[in-house]
Structures are given as C-alpha cells and as structure tokens.
Backbone:
C-alpha cells in the first residue's frame, strides 16, 4: 500500500538568511539577495554579483575540529538538516535510525576545498595537499555528515545531476517513503560553488548575468550563481498525524526525463515530459495546479523554452497559472536549487502566498505567463509543481499539495 | 578585413570544430557549419587566446556567421590598438 507523503520539517540556509523563516520572509517581501561577491577577490571576473549566504561563520555551527573536517557545502547540509529535523520534532530511536533514509543532491562536491588544494600545488608550488581533501571534497560528504550526526543507518546516498540534483534526490526519497521502504526520509540538497576556479568556468560559459538575475524579463542577461542548502523531513501522513506533528505540505508526485537533445541547450519536449510524468505520478490533472516554481534561470534559452513547455503541458490552464522564479532572490544554487525551491513552494502552499519573480522589468512575448512580477501575491493554491532542468538534459519535477 | 585576419579566424574555427579548414569560408553561417551555442563559446575562447583579446559577452551576442565573427574581431583589435596608442 502506498502512503501519502507529508513534509514535517523544513530547514534552509541561503542568501536570504540562515534559516527557513529568514528565507521565507525574504521571499514574501520579494527581496533579492543578489549582492557583490565577497568570497573571491573583486574585479577578477566578468560578473560582479552572486547570492552568498550572508555572515556565515562556520564556528557558529561547528566546533573547530568539525569545521576543519567539512567543506562549506557539507556544513550547509548539516545546518539545514538540523533545522529541519528540529522542526519535525522527530527523535531517532535505534529502530528508527535504521528505517530512515537520507538522499541529498549535490552537483560539484567540495569546490572550495579542491580550489585551495590545487592553488597550493600549482601556484604556491607546495608538494602536497591536505590529507582531509578527499573526505571534504567528496559529493556525499554532506549526506554522510548528517548520517553521522543523527546515527542514521538506513539508505544514505547523494545524487549528482547538476541543477536537477536536489529534485532527483527529493523524488527518490519521496518514493522510498511512499512505498514504505523507508519510514522517514531526510532529503534535499546543498552546494557551495563560489570558488575562483569554478566561477572562472561559469564565466567562460557566458551564461552568468553581469548585473542581476531577471527571469522571464525581456532584458534578462543570464543566471546568478548562489549557494546554500535546504532539507525536508518526509514521513507517511498517518505517522505524522499519529505523533501530532505539524504537516507543512504533501509531496504528491515526481517525474523525470532526459532530453537526449544537447549537452547544454534546453528542450521544451523533455521538460514537458517530466512535468506530465510528475502530474501522472501524483494522479492530478493539470487544472489541480495553481502555482509553478519555475526553473527560471534567467537565461534567454531556459525561460523561453520553459514557457513553451508549460504551455504545452497545461494548455488553456497555463493562462491561470501563477509562475515564478525564486532564483531571482536566492540565486541559482545548482545542486541545492531544487531543495531551496521545494522549500519556497511548500511555503507558498502553507502560507497562501506566492513568492514573486524579483528584478522583473519588462514583459518578453516569448515568456507570456503570469510570472508574478516583483510583488508576492496572496493566493491560496491547492497544488504546485517545482521544475528543475539540468545541463546534460536531465529534468526532474516535483508535485506538492496542501495538506492541512 | 584583411586576408590574413580572415585566415586566422577561419583557422581557429576549423581547429576548434575539428573540421577541414577549407570548409570554413567567410560567407558560411554557423548553422551551415553546425556550430551550436556551446561550440560558439568554445570558439570565442580560442579566439581570445589567438588574438590576446577579451571578448565581452555583449560583443559576442548575436554573432551568427563567419563574417560576423571576423568583423567583431577586427573591431576589438582596432579598439585594443587605440587603447595601446592612448597609453603611449
């Protein structure tokens, strides 16, 4: 028998603040946290801005020994997991530790750790790198840290599908809880991509906006990189009810597809197939959806292609949808993007408020949807989807429902 | 547009695309040469190296043909030599 999957905890650390309530306050206010880069020397890149976690000090969250062991991306995962698990109120008994899964998305691993190691090798001509490099930089370091902190001994793994990583991770965790394979799942994603070497690689790709991220806007000039993590706690609805937990929403379906079209160019067909597959999985008609948290990177290609895909899936109902890209506020956090946006989507359902597309200046005929420009809208929707479309053509879409 | 400039630019395009140099002529479009957006970025990178230039994103936007590319490089080289002169 399949369970309905309730979300009973949300944690988030992003450019909008170090907790989910901070992030939600920013989203609700339509506040863009895109600011001048501070993690690399100024003037070294064609773009100036990023969405950095503000005032982040590892020692606020970890002792010196642990801070040394953990790359920034793994720290973010642990910080968000602690918040989510705290909110859920779950206490892990030895039996539950074995029946709990952790599935986290991450795209790049410990980029800062690698950068520092390679800098000391090639630039400083040092003959060796820190023996902690591998343990810090491996993509599963975040999931493993959460497993260690809470003694979780069930299935624990990391999914790396670039910008779709977190949606794929949450989707896998959702299916494990729905089927009963896991009793509780901790799912989400984390990313800390703002190292000089990786930023230079993004610069070379010419997809980063020189100023800010303006999804769906006529004058959009690209994405803005972000960092952070978001973690959800998932459990069967009946389990949450039995222990009197607050239910923040339901994950109702998950769909994925591969474009098999091009390594970086998006495809409306592939994106549409993932959305249809997610709706089918949820057993919902397109008319049941009121809000789409778009992939909405702010590149010319993505936003027009995503609009076309949404129109093809939703038909006439597309005109009634509210569609926003919260990347305009928290940036594109790559392997954490889907998780941060899942948190935003759950907030929209829970609080009855649709976060806007910030930095919007002028309509683009190629993006002719209601993109909720600049100001949040108080509308209670019952169903929502959140899109993630990755380089490599890998698409993952989650369906959420309000579950009071 | 000097022949030398044309041949350096087309040479870079051919080398980057791994296609015979004689196929890259001034009147070819990127579409005809099967140069997609990612290939285009890779060619820009190679041209920056070849001519010791910084090609801004805005200058790169809208380039669709070999001719556009040669003209763009010509303009940037002229600006570069102006800048060098004014420094003297």
Residues:
């Amino acid at each position: 028998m399949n369970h309905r999957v309730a979300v009973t905890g949300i944690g988030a650390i992003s450019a909008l603040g170090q907790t989910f309530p901070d992030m939600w306050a920013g989203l609700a206010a339509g506040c863009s946290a895109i600011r001048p880069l501070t993690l690399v020397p100024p003037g070294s890149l064609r773009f100036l801005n990023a969405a950095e976690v503000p005032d982040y000090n590892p020692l606020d969250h970890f002792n010196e020994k642990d801070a040394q062991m953990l790359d920034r991306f793994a720290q973010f995962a642990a910080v968000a997991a602690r918040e989510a698990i705290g909110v859920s109120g779950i206490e892990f008994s030895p039996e539950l530790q074995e029946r709990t899964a952790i599935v986290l998305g991450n795209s790049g691993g410990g980029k800062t750790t690698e950068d520092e190691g390679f800098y000391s090798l090639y630039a400083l001509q040092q003959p060796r790198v820190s023996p902690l490099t591998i343990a810090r930089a491996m993509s599963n370091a975040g999931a493993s840290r959460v497993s260690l902190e809470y003694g979780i001994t069930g299935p624990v793994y990391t999914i790396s599908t670039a910008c779709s990583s977190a949606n794929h991770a949450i989707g896998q965790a959702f299916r494990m809880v729905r089927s009963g394979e896991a009793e509780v799942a901790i799912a989400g994603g984390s990313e800390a991509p703002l190292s000089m070497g990786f930023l230079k690689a993004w610069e070379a790709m010419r997809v980063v906006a020189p100023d800010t991220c303006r999804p769906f806007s006529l004058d959009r000039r690209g994405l803005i990189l972000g960092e952070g993590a978001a973690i959800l706690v998932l459990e069967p609805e009946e389990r949450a009810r039995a222990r009197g937990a607050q239910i923040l929403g339901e994950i109702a379906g998950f769909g994925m597809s591969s474009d098999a079209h091009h390594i970086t160019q998006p495809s409306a067909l592939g994106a549409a197939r993932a959305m249809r597959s997610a709706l089918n999985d949820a057993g919902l008609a397109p008319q049941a959806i009121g809000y789409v948290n778009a992939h909405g990177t702010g590149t010319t290609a993505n936003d027009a292609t995503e609009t076309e895909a949404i129109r093809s899936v939703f038909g006439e109902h597309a005109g009634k949808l509210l569609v926003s890209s919260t990347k305009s506020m928290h940036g594109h956090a790559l392997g954490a993007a889907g998780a941060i946006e899942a948190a935003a989507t759950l907030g929209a359902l829970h609080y009855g408020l649709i976060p806007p597309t910030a930095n919007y200046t002028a309509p683009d005929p190629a993006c002719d949807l209601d993109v909720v420009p600049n100001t949040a809208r108080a509308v209670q929707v019952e169903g929502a989807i959140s899109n993630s479309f990755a380089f490599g053509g890998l698409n993952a879409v989650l369906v959420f429902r309000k579950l009071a | 547009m000097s022949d030398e400039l044309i041949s350096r630019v087309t040479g870079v395009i051919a080398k980057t695309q791994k296609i015979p140099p004689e196929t890259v002529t001034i009147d070819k479009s990127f579409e005809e040469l099967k140069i997609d957006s990612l290939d285009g970025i890779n060619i820009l990178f190679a041209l920056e190296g070849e001519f010791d230039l910084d090609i801004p994103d805005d200058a790169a936007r809208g380039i669709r043909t070999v001719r556009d590319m040669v003209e763009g490089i010509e303009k940037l080289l002229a600006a570069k030599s102006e800048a060098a002169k004014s420094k003297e």
Notes: Chain B has a mean pLDDT of 94. Chain B touches chain A at residues 36-38, 41, 44-45, 56-57, 60 (CB under 8 Å).
